[in-house]
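Worked example 3 (structure in, sequence out).
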């Protein structure tokens, strides 16, 4: 439902080095669907400095998952954002989790604030670590004290749940300059930062 700009693995690794990071995680974008070829190729050329998060279907085989694991994949991404994908029923995702849990993988969940409350009971039932994309896309115009964001911040006190503190350019309501994210900053301050080395090796 969208077309990304072109970027090579060499550009990605150069950006990582320029920013001074020792390692990076490459996440399969929704626009590529279940074709993880570019992700796997980048991982294999990363000199073991990258890990990956794939997008797979419930028909994925254990052999395919093992090959991904050997390449450096350590999680799968579930997208529940209807304007980008057509989400499946919960049992579809449960079937995938059943296949990845013994590999020690986690899941990344892309969800928006409006669907957060209805989805959390399902996530609670899963026997894997859950990472939210972009702080679960809070509605920043409501402020950090709104019950929606407070519920999210409370959830992160549980070690099962993590979040990517990312994407302020999509969350801000400031408009205009992409350098002014002052309305997003208060939300970052309420995110509990724990041991950054904990995610799977």
């Amino acid at each position: 439902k969208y077309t990304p700009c072109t970027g090579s693995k060499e550009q990605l690794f150069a950006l990582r080095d320029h920013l001074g990071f020792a390692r990076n995680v490459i996440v399969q974008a929704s626009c590529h669907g279940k074709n993880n070829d570019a992700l796997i190729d980048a991982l294999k050329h990363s000199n073991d400095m990258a890990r990956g998060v794939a997008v797979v279907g419930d028909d994925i085989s254990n052999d395919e998952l093992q090959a991904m694991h050997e390449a450096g994949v350590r999680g799968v991404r579930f997208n529940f954002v209807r304007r980008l994908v057509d989400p499946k029923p919960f049992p579809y995702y449960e079937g995938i989790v059943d296949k990845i849990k013994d590999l020690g993988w986690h899941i990344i969940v892309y969800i928006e604030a409006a669907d957060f409350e209805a989805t959390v009971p399902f996530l609670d039932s899963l026997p894997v670590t859950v990472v939210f994309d972009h702080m679960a896309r809070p509605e920043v115009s409501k402020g950090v004290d709104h019950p929606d964001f407070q519920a999210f911040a409370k959830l992160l006190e549980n070690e099962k749940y993590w979040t990517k503190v990312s994407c302020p350019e999509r969350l801000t309501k400031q408009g205009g300059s992409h350098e002014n994210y002052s309305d997003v900053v208060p939300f970052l301050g309420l995110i509990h930062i724990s041991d950054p080395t904990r995610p799977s090796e």
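Notes: Strands lie at 24-27, 50-54, 73-79, 106-110, 130-132, 161-163. Residues 194-201 have pLDDT under 50 and may be disordered.
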